[in-house]
Structures are given as structure tokens and as C-alpha cells.
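Need fresh eyes. Consider my entry:
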Amino acid sequence: MNCSQARKILYPESAKSEVTTEHAAASQHARECPDCDRYFHEQRQWSQLLKKKAGIEKAPDSLRKQVEGAVSPDMEAKSSVWARRHRLALLAGLAIAVVLPAAWLMWYEPSASFFSDMCRDHARYLSGQADVRSAEPEVVEIWLRQQTKYAVQVPSLQDATLLGGRLCHLREKPAALVFYRKRERPLSLFQFSEDGVNLRALNRSVIEGTPIWRGSFHGYNVAAFPQRGLIFVLVSDLREGELLELASEARAQARGF
């Protein structure tokens, strides 16, 4: 059993997975594989961070009583400049406590879900079902540019074999999808307009002075960067560090076009 198969079986919570023969094999793989052990550890940390940031707690009774008292008729009648300011401060604090977590979720969730869907697309095309098959970057570029009207770039990635590309749609957003293989592991490079997609839904890293955004969804790692109005996203079950290096290499080449 390889890393990709084990992560699909155990994701998102290995302890809650159905106990089957496949689950036992996947659990054994995860225990013996340093990469998978680190992957599930990072997933648990990310889940805890998300719950911490997204949690919406009920306002304390003392604060609610103060707010209710501040807006009562008796208090209104006796209000002074200081009392009005105090009341507004309490109301603002209550609003912030309730609204900000909800606003954060509304900002975060669409982009995070977008990257999650991208990983599902990667899994759908693991065998590299290309519309244009070629190991020549120029051939794949020309075809994808005609289909998307984007300035698609097809970088030559170290120790990775170019297979071809296809047009796909991510939530009705057209995207160029380039297929590679590295050590027999599928590697996808998505390129699409940056409109409506926020990279801050991922975690930020800096590779050789260049910011690269990273994340993990459905057992796959993601490494992304913006360039000239497009977002480039590499998706694979390769180790995160290796994928970040490939993303840094791709960005350096994209800058040179």
C-alpha cells in the first residue's frame, strides 16, 4: 500500500475510519511511514487551529446583562456622554465577538473548498487523461492557451516527465491542467485566473525568499503561487518539502517567460 492509498482510507480522521482489512493495512503503513505520520500530525494540528479560529462562543452572562442594562429605558433616560460611549463600546465588543468569527469563515471557506475540489480533480485524472499528449512544453502551451485564453506556462520540472495537458473546470472557472510524473507519482499543475481565489486560505511558506502557499486535502499536498494574474497550483502525494521545491522551481521559470 502506498501513501496516497493509505491517506484516502484514513482521511480525515484515522481513528474514526471503518475498521476493515484495508484500514488495518493503511494504519500499519501510516505507523511505519514517516511522511504519512507527519502528514496526519499536521492534519490534526490544522483541525485544532481551524476549530480555535472558527469557534463562536456565547457572550458571557455578565456582558449580556450590561448590554441589556445599557439599552434599557431607565438607563437611556439617565444617560450621559460617558454612558453612551460605554454602551456603544459594549455593543461593539459584542458584535466583534459574534461577527468576526462568522466573517472569517465566510472569507476562508470558499477558497479552502476550492483547493479541496482541485485535489479531487487531481485524483480523477491520476492516469493522466490528456486532451493533448506531448513531452514538448511548447506544444502543450499553445494548445492550452487556445482553450483558456490564459498565458499558460508549462515549466520543465526537475526529474519530472511531461505527459500532456487538458482543459478542466473548477466550479465553472476554466483551468489549464498539465500532467507530469515524477518517480511514477502523478503530479498535476493547475493554472487559472486569480479572481475570487484567496491564497491565504492556505499556509504561507518562504522558499529562497519567495512566498509559496501550501496545504493538504484528501491525502494530497498542495503548493501554490501567483504570477501575472494567474494562480499556479501543484498537487501530488509527493512529500510536502519536495512539492514546495518544485513550486519554487516552477515560479522561477514562470517569471522568466
